[in-house]
Structure formats: C-alpha cells, structure tokens
Amino acid sequence: MDQARTKTILDRYRDSTKLPRKYPDLHDHVLALAAADKLIVIDEPVNKDTEMHPLVRWQYRGGIEEKDRKAFLFTNPVDSKGKKYEHPVLIAGLAGSHDIYRVGFGKPLDQVGKIWVDALASPITPNVVTDAPCQEVVVEGDALDKPGMALDGLPVPISTPGWDNAPYLASAHYITADPDTGIQNVGNYRGQLKTRRRLGMNPSVELRAGIYAHWEKCRAKGVPLPCAVVLGCPPAISYAAVQKMPENLDEVAVAGGLVGSAINVVRAKTVPLMVPAEAEIVIEGFIDTRWLEPEAPFGESHGYVNLQEYNAFMDVTAITRRRNPILTSFISQVTPSESSVIRKVAMEPVFYNHLRNVLNIKGVKRVAMHEPLTSLYAVIAIQFARETPKSEVWRALTGASVLHRFAGKWIVAVDEDIDPDNADMIFWAMSYRCQPQHDLEVVPNKDPGHGPRGPLDNGETASVLINAMLKGTYSPVALPKREYMENAKALWERLGLPALKPQTPWHGYDLGHWPHTLEEQAQRATRGDYFLTGEEAEKRRRDDVKMNEPVTQPGDNKPPRDDH
To answer: Does any domain span residue 537?
Structure first.
C-alpha cells in the first residue's frame, strides 16, 4: 500500500481526546510503531476467520528473524460470509517482538527489569474520571439485540483455523473484583463468541487466577460475578494484565507504576467496576456462577489444542467503545509468539531479582526462560559467574524451583561462557559438563500447571535441577581463536560472500586446562614452524605407556582467559 494511503489511515488515530495523561494509549502506540517501521498496514479485505492469524503466524514459523518481525494492522476485516467490519484489528502489536515490546514500554529493554521490580513494589493508585474515551459510544439494553450492535459487530479473528470452534477473544483483559475486599483483578483469558450477548470464558483454573477465586466466592453467595472485558487499552495495562501477580495487587495500579503515573479509570455503565478510561472496547456483563456449558476446543500457548470442557459464560449487558476503536488480538499458540514475548520480558527479571537480591546469590548473572515451543515455563537456564561456589549454585537451582508454582520443570545451571538463550549451548553443557549421577536432583510434588490435558493432569509433576557447570578446568573450545576468526570474517566480507549471522560460540576460548607448552606449540604452528614440534615429540618417545594415555606437559596451567 502506498505511503499516502497509510498516512490517511493512521491519521484517524491521532489523539483527539482532552483527558490529561502522562502515558501512551493504544492509538499513540500504533503511531509509534509506524514511526519505528514496526507496523504493516493491510487495507485490502482479509478474512478474519481463515486468513488473518495464519498470515501473521508465518513470521513466527517462516524463518523470519526476531528483529524483523512486525505488528499487523488489518483495516478491512471481513468474515467467511462476506460480512464487513467497521473496526480494524491489531495483531502482534503489543509484543510481536522484543523491539515492539520496547516501543510499547517506552524504555530501553535493559531498563525493563528494574522498572518491573519497582512497579510491583510501588504501584500507583488509578485516577478516577467521569468522562472517558472508552464511553464515547455506549450500547446497552435492548439495543444489544439489534444485528451488529453486540458481539456480532466485533471482528474477532479465529486464532487456529481448522481447530478452534469459534472466534475467541485472545487479548481480552477480564476485570473482576473480590466480593469481600473490593480489590480488582485484571487477567488475560480467552473468550468464545457464543451468541450476540453471550461470551464463553475459561478462568484458567490451573493458574489459580484471581477471577476464579472471585467466581468461587460469588458462587458461594449465590450471586453472579460482575465482569468487564477490555479489548485494547494503554500498553502498560496489557503488559501488567498478562503477568501472574499477588492477588492483593490491582494490575491497573501496577501499570501506573510501570509508567510512573496514575492510570485514568472510569466507572463502567452496568457493572460496579472501574475500567481503563482510554480502553478501546469494553464488554460489560455478569458471569453466571450456577451453570457451566461446553467451551473450546482452542489452540493453547503450550502448543496443543485444549479440547472441549465445561466452563463459565458471561451475559453481556453493555458494550462501550471509542468512536474509532482498534480491536487487539494476541498471536499465541505455538511459541515463540506474541504471548510468550510479552511474558518473557517481565518474568525473567522477576526470577533474576528473586535469586540475586532476595536470596542474595551474587554469582547469578542471568536467567533465561526458554521460549520456542515450551511457552517459557518448562525450561529455565541460570547463568553463573565463573567459580561460583557449588553450594550457591544448588541454592539458586532450588530457589528457582519454588518461586513460581509451576514454572521450572527443567532448571539448568550453566557457566558464563554458555549463552542461556541458546538451547544448543545448553545441551552442549548438559552433555559434557554434567554427570547425571552427581549433578541432578529431582524435586517432587510440583504443580503441573498450564499444559495439555491428559490422564495425569490432576496429579503432580516435578522439577529436575541440573548442574551443567564446569567442575574443574577444561580444554579450550575447539574453534579457531578470536583473532583468526575476525581476520577470516574481514576476508569473507572483502570477497563479497553472503552476509554472516554469527552463531555463539563463533571462536575458541580457554577453559583453564591449557598449558604454556601447548600454547607455544599452537603459536608455532600458525607461523609454519610445526616441524619443530615434531622434532620435540621424537625426543619424548616412550615404550612404557598405553595407547591414548595423556601426555603430562611441563609448565603449569595458566588461568582461563575471559575472552569469550
């Protein structure tokens, strides 16, 4: 699409509201994505039921590098019956990549961890307003029964066509309140479009979500649970909504901590809840606490389809929105995906802070939660500084296993020369720096958490703790030294060969077992004087040793070089 048409489309999202705020809303974010060349605007008709999510999925399953992934804004959604929809759909717009997350967060990625820790410690109470953009258009009562005025007017995509049994809200932030304390909770859950005025929902029982606790309390009281579902809002709220937080924390207040300013909220029209004033679309209603009905199948973030089960549903009492709203939909299911990036960026710093600052384990350098296919929770790698005491390594492994109720089925300790984001390097360390009979512990009675339903889902799993660190000195990594690889790279580029994408490790480095004598011989070889080494070998012949017996070298080992 030409730039003029793109500009015309985006101009409609320039802020026209007068409500004071010190944080970006979703409209601001879309414009920022466009300015950063992280937005693809598609103005031709795209079928939300069969084409929209599969198209975006290709940038995660088609070999596109993470840095090249972009958000997609579909301005002309249609369905399989040819129906046209008024509102555009944004997919991969909040965390389609780390860089997209950075744009939405408004801070460099290396600052995100500290900001998250500070926001959790010092949330900012929301600011209550009476006139809000999210209520510029209000549809309630009998008006919801008119065609196109309720859920049937929303261009909700099908996330996994061919498996899902309906369009599902994928980035729906459900707001409920504890009926005893009044403290609100915001969580992200799927929502099945069932009828014009009935929305299915899955409270993620295995996650011990706040909404499920609220539902149970209302059920005991014999009353329905008031609920507001937010579709599109200031990015900070979305970043907070998807994280697992203590139930006494209001995620909107945490979002305020993230941006350093109180988030504007307004009272919903038909339910006793406060909703983000700059939300794009808000669905209000009551979740039935007596009846459950079939819901799903739906493709889940653990990479498998969640088959049909009995779940709750919400009767819609109102839909409010901006005059020009944008409907958001997370690209989820098989990871990497938007839903995994949005959790990874915040969860890794939380684990690091717990190990480093709460447990005071100073040897911890990084925590990495493996993303592709495992949805972050299954595999966690902890990188340690060289010569961290063994006792501290095991204390960190144990601490990581208990921080989160179900995260960490496999927790691996690695040295600082091992990139914890590189699964190949982790397997390398596990293969050659770990002896399972000495370096493996199993912690039983672990909650299975979020995963495919099966015969053992109601049972327990375990955490496997693996010390894959060096237990002494090792011989060097068998790649040319850095200087030779760098010189060769310069030659490669002079020859005009295809652009390189260096894979760690791309050069050899010392791991402590490298005698001075062997260093001298290696340097001699690069000068072409290797026959001298052959002559020395002749002088050291022996007839009292077995084949493959190591040669004891004169000279002490030198300390390992920190040049990797």
So the answer is: yes
- For the chain, how many structural domains are there in total? 3
Domain containing residue 412: 359-467
Whether residue 43 contacts residue 73, with contact meaning beta carbons closer than 8 Å, is answered with: no
Residue 340: inside a domain = no
Q: Which residues pair with residue 193 across a beta bridge?
A: 199
- Non-local CB neighbours of 361 within 8 Å, separated by 6+ positions: 355, 392, 395, 396, 399
Per-residue pLDDT of the chain (564 residues; tens, 9 = 90+): 667 778 888 888 887 667 889 999 999 999 999 999 999 999 999 999 999 999 998 998 888 889 999 999 999 999 999 999 999 999 999 999 999 999 999 999 889 889 998 999 999 999 999 999 999 999 999 999 999 999 999 999 999 998 899 999 999 999 999 999 999 999 999 999 999 999 999 886 655 668 999 999 999 999 999 999 999 999 999 999 998 777 778 999 999 999 999 999 999 999 999 999 999 999 999 999 999 999 988 887 777 788 888 999 999 999 999 999 999 999 888 888 888 888 888 889 889 999 999 999 989 999 999 988 888 888 999 999 988 999 999 999 999 998 877 788 999 999 999 999 999 999 999 999 999 999 999 988 777 766 665 555 556 788 999 999 998 888 888 778 889 989 888 988 998 988 988 888 888 888 888 889 889 988 988 888 888 988 988 898 888 888 888 887 665 455 544 555
Q: Which residue has the tokens 């932030």?
A: 173
Judge whether 136 lies within some domain: yes
Residue 399 neighbours by CB distance under 10 Å: 18
Residues 500, 460, single domain; the answer is no
Predicted TM-score (pTM) of the model is 0.86
Identify whether 202 is part of a domain.
Answer: yes
Are residue 457 and residue 500 in the same domain, yes or no? no
Check if the beta carbon of residue 336 is closer than 8 Å to that of residue 345: no
In the block, residue with structure tokens 């590098």: 65
Is the domain of 457 the same as that of 490? no
